[in-house]
Specification:
The chain is of the alpha+beta class. Among the domains are: about 50 residues, no CATH class; about 80 residues, SH3 type barrels. The chain is built from 16 helices and 13 strands. The strands form four sheets. Strands 7-8-9-11-10 form a five-stranded mixed sheet, with helices on both faces. Strands 1-4-5-6 form a four-stranded antiparallel sheet, with no helix packed on it. A two-stranded antiparallel sheet has the order 2-3. A hairpin with an 8-residue loop joins strand 2 and strand 3. The longest helix is centred in the N-terminal third of the chain and has 25 residues.
């Protein structure tokens, strides 16, 4: 047999390469969160294309990696906010190594280190704030949460002293809170940003203000809002302490949404956010119906997390639950929604890290969690999905027991998680690694994903 010449294989190799590139681009549009597409961002030649496609097809709550801080140094008009939950008091093992100041209930966070400057928020309970710098008795701090964003401000703490170990060991229980209705002032700010002031309606169990005229979008909102509470209760077996009373602000144009966001939560996501303490979800509607449904479901989950578990949960739990719910909430979905209709994970190769260890996730505060948001959102939701959906073991009832303990007021801690799961860290990580390495492919017709 004559040896094969280079020109005899060049054409087939080029054709195979072109087909591979086309396959990756197709995956990027249909399965933008597939592991192979995420990894392709780092490859030569196809990397820029994969990044561009993911940026177009993945909602920004998971593409917000390493976003910069947003400071309000201009003094531009913003809605005053009072009595907002900021950080949940948890076991000190979750507080990380960053310097903190423990601010007492009622402390005002000011825009500047001046008692006459604008008050941004007033704390509802004692809790730790990340300390950035000190100027006499004034401390610059970072505050906020993963849904409404992180901001900077100043607190005045005269003759401040660190709390004792005894004080830290006995935090007041934090319980689920009833729904907060959006104030007239908040509604007015939203309507100012809408075309012709918007119109009122219903988004299922939630109030709705919108300037969207597309009946398909309004119908989708009503369907999701009608099913989300029951679906959340079914997946996590948690009972809300109140019925829904919050408002959905649905903006036709993203520029109008951002004008509203910049008034109330300037560090929040680019296309949607929840502010449970102010009683609203705000979403920009100028995207595909499937992507809009996914974002709306994710943000409504934050309202339900507050009514079932409590305010200002650690980011791994709050965002992990919200993203898991947007993927697995069984609401019934839109045919074009790739995140709900099809999910694909590439099996982990030997010697390759199966994902971010849970212990590392638990140690991330709000600021660090958002620095690598895309990675951390995926990792947190995978751990939640592992706890709830792993076949052949009893992780699900144990994890639900952990959630129930939080709902009853037990402080969130590593010990609480491990004790309720009944495993060691080594066993937990080994089980997750095996689950990840197995990979899975799920194709579910959307009509089957109805609320149980």
């Amino acid at each position: 047999m004559a040896p094969m010449r280079l020109r005899d294989v060049t054409a087939p190799l080029l054709l195979a390469g072109v087909l591979l590139i086309l396959l990756l681009l197709a995956l990027a549009t249909r399965y933008p969160e597939a592991e192979i597409v995420v990894r392709a961002e780092e490859w030569p030649v196809v990397g820029p294309a994969a990044q561009a496609f993911r940026a177009r097809y993945v909602p920004s709550e998971v593409m917000n990696a390493e976003a910069g801080d947003t400071d309000d140094e201009s003094g531009a008009k913003r809605q005053p906010v009072a009595q907002v939950e900021v950080i949940r008091v948890v076991d000190t093992g979750f507080l990380g190594v960053k310097p903190k100041v423990w601010a007492p209930r009622g402390t005002a966070i000011h825009h500047l280190p001046d008692s006459d400057s604008r008050v941004l928020i007033r704390l509802k309970r004692d809790f730790p704030l990340s300390r950035l710098r000190r100027d006499g008795d004034w401390y610059e701090v970072r505050f906020g949460n993963s849904t409404a964003g992180l901001e900077k401000g100043w607190v005045f703490l005269e003759n401040y002293r660190e709390p004792t170990a005894e004080e830290l060991a006995a935090p007041a229980p934090v319980l689920p809170l009833p729904a907060t209705a959006a104030s007239e002032e908040t509604v007015a700010v939203a309507r100012e940003a809408m075309r012709e002031g918007g119109t009122s309606g219903r988004c299922g169990e939630y109030l709705l203000w919108t300037d969207v005229e597309d009946p398909a979008v309004v119908a989708m909102c009503d369907r999701v809002g009608s099913r989300v509470d029951a679906a959340h209760r079914s997946r996590y077996e948690l009972q809300p302490v109140s019925v829904a009373a919050e408002t959905v602000f649905l903006f036709r144009d993203i520029e109008d949404y951002r004008a509203f966001r910049d008034r109330l939560a300037p560090s929040a996501h680019e296309d949607g956010h929840a502010y449970p303490a102010l009683g609203y979800v705000a979403v920009a509607a100028d995207r595909s119906l499937g992507a809009l449904e996914s974002i709306l479901t994710h943000e409504l989950a934050h309202l339900l997390n507050r009514r079932t578990l409590g305010p200002a949960l650690p980011p791994w739990l709050d965002e992990g639950l919200a993203r898991d719910f947007s993927l697995n909430g069984r609401l019934g979905g839109t045919e074009e929604n790739p995140r709900r209709k099809n999910r694909f994970r590439l099996p982990t190769l030997p010697g390759q890290s199966p994902g971010l260890p849970l212990r590392e996730l638990l140690e991330l505060d709000q600021e660090d969690f958002q620095k690598r948001a895309a990675r951390n959102y995926r990792a947190a939701s995978r751990w939640i999905e592992h706890f709830l959906d792993s076949p052949g073991d009893d992780l699900r009832p144990r994890f639900l027991d952990f959630l129930g303990a939080i709902a009853s007021g037990e402080p969130i801690s590593e010990d609480l998680l491990l004790n309720r799961l009944g495993v060691s860290w080594a066993e937990l990580e080994a089980g997750f690694a095996g689950w990840e390495q197995s990979g899975f492919a799920v194709t579910t017709t959307v009509s089957d994903r109805t609320t149980r």
